[in-house]
């Protein structure tokens, strides 16, 4: 294997150390901890595991977490109502709706019930627009984590050709926008793109975000390319790891690459939201 591993666990650990410092300063200044509310619908085992991981990371960083568990039979209206209540709760700084929700629920309607100032997972239309226009909104957590990981390894993006495989509104599309903002030339592909291998072979940076295990063959990777695998299913990514690692210059493992960076970004943005909420209160009620 010739590629350098993009170690998301190590980089996220350093980020979370800084988050812990920021939380200590916040608590000293405002006599409360930043609070993240997590909404989990149904009993999907993987979703429960992810929520526990996020709660554990919150606890280690000193962030307060509030978990709301709802039955799979909950209606869209009921879910939207619970999320709107959290949006109106001044004690809550960030809201995370664990994805995916059970079939029959309008996930987009539920996402849009999150107040933009509490959308620390970057899933609303407002967050996407402000991110795309560089107007200071919250980044989608996984794409934001990808960018932080590339930055940690000083990987240049300006002038590079990036191919994003995937078009999810919370992963593929925002990842392309963030790469574009770094002056990369971005091509979007997906599972139905004709001659997908030819498109990937042109890429200096490949972001695999289709959620299709083994979709991207190692032999397609351009020698020296950077490969970021954001796919995950049964500990398997979208990229044929061993074969791709023989050709890439940098590559993320699955697990241990993008996943830890997603959680780190979520917590960074929760603390930022808490500071912004306190700043807004000080302006509204000056001493």
Automatic annotation (TrEMBL):
Catalytic reaction equation(s): (6R)-5,10-methylene-5,6,7,8-tetrahydrofolate + NADP(+) = (6R)-5,10-methenyltetrahydrofolate + NADPH; (6R)-5,10-methenyltetrahydrofolate + H2O = (6R)-10-formyltetrahydrofolate + H(+)
Signal sequence annotation: none
CDD domains: NAD_bind_m-THF_DH_Cyclohyd
Species, as recorded: Amycolatopsis pigmentata
Protein function: Catalyzes the oxidation of 5,10-methylenetetrahydrofolate to 5,10-methenyltetrahydrofolate and then the hydrolysis of 5,10-methenyltetrahydrofolate to 10-formyltetrahydrofolate.
Alphabetical UniProt keywords: Amino-acid biosynthesis, Histidine biosynthesis, Hydrolase, Methionine biosynthesis, Multifunctional enzyme, NADP, One-carbon metabolism, Oxidoreductase, Purine biosynthesis
Ranges of residues in domain Tetrahydrofolate dehydrogenase/cyclohydrolase NAD(P)-binding: 140-276
PROSITE patterns with a match to the protein in the record: THF_DHG_CYH_2
Taxon lineage: Bacteria, Bacillati, Actinomycetota, Actinomycetes, Pseudonocardiales
The name this protein goes by in its record: Bifunctional protein FolD
EC number: 1.5.1.5, 3.5.4.9
Domain Tetrahydrofolate dehydrogenase/cyclohydrolase catalytic: from-to ranges: 6-121
Quaternary structure annotation from Swiss-Prot or TrEMBL: Homodimer.
Sites where the protein binds NADP(+): 166-168
Pathway: One-carbon metabolism; tetrahydrofolate interconversion
């Amino acid at each position: 294997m010739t590629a350098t591993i993009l170690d998301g666990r190590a980089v996220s650990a350093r980020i979370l150390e800084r988050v812990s410092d920021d939380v200590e300063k916040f608590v000293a200044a405002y006599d409360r901890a930043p609070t993240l509310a997590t909404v989990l619908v149904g009993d999907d085992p993987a979703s429960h595991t992810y929520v526990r991981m996020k709660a554990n990371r919150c606890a280690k960083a000193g962030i307060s977490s509030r978990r709301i568990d709802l039955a799979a039979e909950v209606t869209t209206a009921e879910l939207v109502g619970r999320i709107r209540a959290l949006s109106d709760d001044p004690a809550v700084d960030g809201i995370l709706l664990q994805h995916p929700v059970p079939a029959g629920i309008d996930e987009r309607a539920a996402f849009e019930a999150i107040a933009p100032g509490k959308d620390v997972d970057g899933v609303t239309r407002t967050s996407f627009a402000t991110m795309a226009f560089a107007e200071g909104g919250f980044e989608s957590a996984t794409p934001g984590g990808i960018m932080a990981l590339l930055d940690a390894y000083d990987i240049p993006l300006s002038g590079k050709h990036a191919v994003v495989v995937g078009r999810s509104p919370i992963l593929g599309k925002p990842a392309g926008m963030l790469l574009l903002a770094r002056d990369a030339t971005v091509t979007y592909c997906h599972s139905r793109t004709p001659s997908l291998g030819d498109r990937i072979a042109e890429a200096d940076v490949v972001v695999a975000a289709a959620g299709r295990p083994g979709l991207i063959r190692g032999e397609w990777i351009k020698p020296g390319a950077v490969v970021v695998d954001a796919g995950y299913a049964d500990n398997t990514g979208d990229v044929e790891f061993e074969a791709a690692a023989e050709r890439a210059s940098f590559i993320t493992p699955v697990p241990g690459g993008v996943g830890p960076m997603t959680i780190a970004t979520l917590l960074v943005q929760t603390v930022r939201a808490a500071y912004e909420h306190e700043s807004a209160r000080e302006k509204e009620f000056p001493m």
